[in-house]
Specification:
single chain; about 675 residues; mainly beta; Immunoglobulin-like; 5 domains; six-stranded antiparallel sheet; elongated
Length: about 675
C-alpha cells in the first residue's frame, strides 16, 4: 500500500483548441512519511534524466511526465509535482487522460525528536530501609540518564531523549516503562495507584503523550504492592505551532537538544503505607544482646549469652577470637563442653537444619559459650547477623568491633625506684618486689599486699662513695605516670627501632620523650638553618639524636615563639619552621614530646614510632610515657631509717586494681634520701 496519494487536477479548454500544454498533479505523503521526486516513475516508461519519463503507461495524448520536489527532498512538508505535457484537439465534451505513477523506492518514515524527564520520589524509613523501589527502563533508541545525585527521601529525575516515527497509531511509540514496587519485606504497600501529572512550560505536548497502566499487583490483603506504567508518544502532525516542532537545529543532535529546552516533565506521585504502625514493618526484631562483659578468667570459664526479641526472629551468632581469628563452633548443642574455637569459619547456625537460629515464642534464646584457658591476652568479638526476615534494633552488634569481651592473663605489678635527679647507678639498685594479680581486676576492699625492705648503700650512687641519709620528711607517694626508661639499640632505620630491654607495658599511643642538648656552632642572623655542635663529644657540625618533621621543639637563650625542627639538613645543621637569630656558643635543647608517639609494638624489643627515627643513634636514652597509669596502688606503713652508712626503706605495697599488662610503680629515691 502506497504511503502517498495523488491529488487530481482539472483545466478548462475550449472545444477545438489545439497545442502543447502542461498540467500538474500533486503527490502528498501520508502522515508519518516523507517523499522525494526521485521516489517516482511512470510504469513501463524510460527516463532521459531530470526525473523526466516518456512512453510507457501514458495515454497517447501525453508526451512526457516530470516529477518535481516542491521543497527539500525527503523532508517533512515536501510534496512532489507530477507535471504532464500533453497535446490534442479538445473535443466538444469533457476529456479525461490518465498516467500510471509508480514508486521507484519505498518512501521514508518521518522521525520526530523528543525529550522528556520522568520524576518520582525516593523514600526510606528510620532504619534506612527503602520503602519502595522504582525501576525505569527506556526502549531501544531512547537515551536515558539519571540527573539526580545520591538521593534519600528526595526527587529522582531521569531524562529520556531520542526519536520516534511520526504517524504511529494509538497509543504511539513506547518510550519507557516505570515500575513501582513496594518493599513488602518491611510491610509497605501503596495506599492507591500512583498518579502522574504533566508540566510542559515550553510548548504543550501533553495530549500527545499516553500513559498506559498495567493492572496493579496486590497482596493477600488486597493492598497494592506493584504498579507498571508505560509511557508512549504520538508526535503531533499538522498542528499549528507543534508541527513542525517549535525548535530546530542544523544537526540531529542540535534538534534533539533543542527539544530538551522545552522542559517537558512527567511527575509520578505516590502514598506509601505500612501494615503495622510501628517500625520496622512486619519484620520481627532482635531487641537485646545480654552477656557478662567483664574480663574472662584466664583459666577459662563458661558464660551464657541471651538473645531477646520478637518471636520467630531469625539470626546467626559469630564469635571471633583474636587468637588466629578462630571462630566459635557451637556444634548445635546446648552442652557447654562441646563448643570450642576452631580455625574453620563457623557460626551458631552452622550445620543447622533451618540454616539459622530462631527466637521462640518466649521471646528469648540462650547460647552457652565455653571460653578456653589462655596464656596471652585474648579478645572475643561478638556480632549477630539477622536473616532477611529479621531486623536488629540499635545497640545490637551486627559487625566486628561493636561488642568485645577481654580475657587477660595474670600480670605482675612491681615496686621499683625512680631516680628523678639521676643520682644513682640504676643497675645497682635492689631487685623490685612484685605482686601477681588478675589483669584488669579491682579489689579495693581487700587489696593485695606485699611487705618490702630495700637497703640503699652509698655504692649505689653515681659517685659510689657519697654519704646518704634518710630524709626527715620522706614522701612515699608512688609515681602516677607510667614512665619507662629505655635505651635505643642500634641505629634506627625509618620509624622502627630496637631497644635494650623489654617492651612490656608499652602501649600504642604512648608518648616517646627524647631530649637532646646542642650548642650553636655558627652565628645565625634571621635564618632558619642552624649549625650545631655536640655538647658531650664537642664534635662540630653534629645534629645526632634530633628528630625532624616538626616533632621536636627548640628552647634556649634567644629562642622565642616555640620553633620546631622542620627537617634534618646536611653538614650537621637543622632547618627550623621559622627564622631565628642566635650567637655561636648558645645552648639549645631539642625536646620531642606529645607529637612523637608509639604507633605499634612489633615484638619484645622493637617499637614503631609515628615519625622517622633515622637520626637517633645507638645508645640514646629515651622515655616512654603512657600518661596516667592504670595501676591502683599505694604504700602503707612506709618507714625509712639510717643503718650505719646505709638507708633502709620499708613498708607494705598495696594493689587495689591491676593493669592489663605488666607494670612497675616507683618510689622516688630523691624524695626519701639526702645525698651529701
Amino acid at each position: 500500500m502506497a504511503n502517498w496519494t495523488v491529488q487530481p487536477n482539472t483545466t478548462a479548454q475550449a472545444a477545438g483548441a489545439t497545442g502543447t500544454q502542461t498540467l500538474d498533479l500533486t503527490i502528498v505523503p501520508n502522515a508519518g512519511f516523507v517523499i522525494s521526486a526521485s521516489n517516482f516513475k511512470i510504469g513501463g516508461a524510460s527516463t532521459s534524466g531530470s526525473n523526466i519519463w516518456t512512453g510507457g503507461n501514458l495515454d497517447s495524448e501525453i508526451s512526457q511526465v516530470q516529477f518535481i520536489d516542491t521543497g527539500t527532498a525527503g523532508t517533512q512538508g515536501n510534496t512532489v509535482i507530477a507535471r504532464a505535457t500533453y497535446s490534442f484537439t479538445m473535443p466538444s465534451a469533457n476529456k479525461t487522460i490518465k498516467i500510471d505513477i509508480d514508486e521507484i523506492s519505498a518512501t521514508t518514515d518521518v522521525n520526530r525528536f523528543l525529550c522528556i524527564r520522568s520524576q518520582h520520589f525516593a523514600e526510606t524509613d528510620s532504619d534506612a530501609n527503602n520503602k519502595h523501589t522504582v525501576t525505569t527502563t527506556s526502549e531501544t533508541g531512547i537515551t536515558q540518564a539519571n540527573n539526580s545525585s545520591t538521593v534519600t527521601n528526595g526527587l529522582i529525575d531521569i531524562s529520556h531523549q531520542g526519536t520516534v516515527v511520526q504517524g504511529v497509531t494509538y497509543p504511539g511509540s513506547l518510550l519507557f516503562t516505570k515500575t513501582f514496587a513496594a518493599n513488602t519485606l518491611n510491610g509497605y504497600y501503596y495506599d492507591a495507584v500512583p498518579t502522574f501529572s504533566f508540566n510542559f512550560p515550553g510548548a504543550d505536548y501533553s495530549s500527545y503523550y499516553n500513559v498506559v497502566q498495567d493492572a496493579p499487583t496486590t497482596n493477600s490483603d488486597g493492598n497494592i504492592t506493584q504498579v507498571v506504567f508505560k509511557v508512549y508518544y504520538q508526535p503531533p502532525v499538522g498542528v499549528l505551532g507543534l508541527d513542525p516542532d517549535p525548535v530546530s537545529g542544523a544537526t540531529d543532535s542540535a534538534r534533539a537538544g533543542a527539544m530538551c529546552e522545552l522542559g517537558h516533565v512527567i511527575t509520578f506521585n505516590h502514598i506509601i503505607r505500612q501494615t503495622r504502625s510501628e517500625q520496622p514493618g512486619n519484620r520481627p526484631r532482635i531487641t537485646h544482646f545480654i552477656i557478662d562483659q567483664s574480663p574472662i578468667d584466664p583459666n577459662g570459664e563458661t558464660r551464657t549469652l541471651q538473645i531477646q526479641g520478637e518471636a520467630f526472629a531469625q539470626y546467626s551468632i559469630t564469635i571471633v577470637s583474636s587468637d588466629s581469628s578462630k571462630t566459635y563452633d557451637f556444634l548445635n548443642t546446648p552442652s557447654p563442653a562441646s563448643g570450642s574455637f576452631t580455625a574453620a569459619a563457623t557460626t551458631s547456625s552452622t550445620g543447622s537444619a533451618l540454616g539459622y537460629d530462631q527466637i521462640g515464642t518466649t521471646g528469648a534464646a540462650v547460647a552457652t559459650i565455653n571460653f578456653p584457658a589462655v596464656t596471652s591476652n585474648t579478645t572475643y568479638d561478638f556480632f549477630i547477623t539477622p536473616q532477611s526476615t529479621t531486623i536488629a534494633d540499635p545497640g545490637i552488634p551486627v559487625a566486628l568491633n561493636e561488642f568485645e569481651i577481654n580475657q587477660f592473663v595474670n600480670v605482675n605489678v612491681s615496686l621499683d625506684f625512680d631516680d628523678s635527679a639521676n643520682q644513682y647507678n640504676d643497675g645497682t639498685l635492689p631487685t623490685p618486689v612484685a605482686l601477681e594479680a588478675r589483669a584488669a581486676q579491682s579489689f579495693p576492699e581487700r587489696p593485695l599486699q606485699k611487705s618490702f625492705s630495700y637497703t640503699i648503700t652509698p655504692a649505689m650512687t653515681n659517685s659510689g662513695s657519697s654519704t646518704i641519709n634518710a630524709k626527715s620528711n620522706p614522701d612515699f607517694t608512688l609515681d602516677t605516670l607510667s614512665n619507662i626508661q629505655l635505651t635505643v639499640s642500634g641505629n634506627p632505620t625509618g620509624t622502627s627501632f630496637d631497644i635494650t630491654g623489654s617492651t612490656a607495658g608499652i602501649q600504642n599511643g604512648s608518648v616517646i620523650n627524647i631530649t637532646t642538648t646542642k650548642v650553636v656552632s655558627v652565628d645565625v642572623d634571621e635564618d632558619a638553618i642552624v649549625f650545631l655542635k655536640d655538647v658531650i663529644t664537642d664534635k662540630t657540625n653534629n645534629n645526632d639524636n634530633i628528630v625532624g618533621g616538626l616533632v621536636m621543639k627548640v628552647t634556649g637563650s634567644g629562642i622565642s615563639m616555640d620553633p620546631r625542627v622542620e627537617s634534618i639538613e646536611p653538614g650537621g645543621s637543622v632547618a627550623l619552621d621559622q627564622p631565628v637569630t642566635l650567637t655561636a656558643g648558645t645552648t639549645l635543647t631539642f625536646t620531642a614530646d606529645q607529637d612523637l608517639i608509639v604507633s605499634s609494638v612489633t615484638d619484645t624489643n622493637t617499637i614503631v614510632a609515628s615519625s622517622s627515627m633515622d637520626n637517633i643513634k645507638d645508645g640514646k636514652e629515651i622515655t616512654i610515657s603512657s600518661g596516667t597509669d592504670d595501676v591502683a596502688a599505694f604504700v602503707s606503713g612506709g618507714e625509712i631509717a639510717d643503718s650505719g652508712s646505709n638507708v633502709v626503706i620499708a613498708g607494705t605495697f598495696n594493689l587495689e586494681g591491676a593493669p592489663t599488662s605488666d607494670k612497675t610503680d616507683r618510689l622516688d629515691l630523691n624524695k626519701l634520701i639526702d645525698i651529701t
